Amino acid sequence: MYSEAQQENLVKFGKHLEMLRKREGLSFRKLAQRCDIDYSNLKKYEKGEINISLLTLIDLASALGVTHQELMDF
């Protein structure tokens, strides 16, 4: 489905997202609620299983209290 390089980037982003979520002390459900997304998708983002949309990235950055650049600095 994804190339090896693309999959690697999804996994790196997911680990970074998980670190930011935990740093803020947020559960999957709480962060998902703040972004109005399904928490099961949030789990998949953190595992690098699915690609994320630009609008979801913007919502996540806002919910985590970070800039878009910080969210993408993985």
Automatic annotation (TrEMBL):
- The HTH cro/C1-type domain covers 17-71
Superkingdom classification of source: Bacteria
Which keywords appear in this protein's UniProt record, sorted alphabetically?
DNA-binding
List, alphabetically, the Pfam families matched. Answer: HTH_3
Q: Which SMART domains match?
A: HTH_XRE
Give any GO molecular function from the UniProt entry: DNA binding
Q: Name one GO cellular component term.
A: cytosol
This protein's record includes keyword DNA-binding: yes
Q: Does the keyword DNA-binding apply?
A: yes
Q: Write the signal peptide boundaries.
A: none
This protein is called what?
HTH cro/C1-type domain-containing protein
Instruction: Please give the organism.
Output: Mucilaginibacter galii
